[in-house]
Amino acid sequence: MQPDGEPLRLRLFVAYRLPAAIVEGVAAWQRQTFANAGGVRPTSPESLHVTMVFLGSQPAAAVSDITDTLRRRTEAARRPSFQLWRYRETPRVGMLTLTELAVSGEAHASRAQTLAGQLALDFQAAGIYEPEKRDWKPHITVARFRTPPRVTAPVPQLGPFGALDVALYESKLSPAGSVYSVLQSTAFAS
Q: What sections of 85-185 are H helices per DSSP?
C-alpha cells in the first residue's frame, strides 16, 4: 500500500534483453554518433532493450501473474535472431531498427513477432493490456530529445545476434529520464 492507502502500482513493460557484446557495440556507436549533437540524451547501456509489450501502470499484486505468463510463453518459444538495420528518428526518439532473421531450418523470420503477439494476446485477455494501433516493429531506443538532431549515421556492423532472454521491467520516471530495473527474466528453451 502507498501512504494514501491506494494499492501500490508499478509501470511495467516486457522486453527482449540484448547480449553484452551488442550493448557494448551500440554504446560505442552512441558515443561516436551523438558526441556533437546538442540536446540529445543517449539511452544508458543498462537500459538498452527491445520492447515487446508496454503494460503501463499495473497493480504490484499483478506481477506474479504477469511473470507466470512471461515464463510459460518464453520457455515454450525459441530464441529469435536479429540484425541492426538502420537508424531513424521520430520527433522525440532516436532508434536503431532491427530486422528479424530466419533461423536455420525455418522458412520465415517470425520468432520474435510470434512471441510478442502471444504475450500481447495473453495480457489483453487478462484485461491488463490494450493493443497498440500500430504494428510491432523491433527496435532499440538509443536516444531521446526535444528536437530531432537529424543525425545521419550508418548503423554499427555488429552482425546477427540472438535475444539474451525476455524480461519484465519496471520503469520509474525521474527528471533525468526513465530508470529501468529487471523484475524477472526468463531464458529461452532453445
A: 111-125
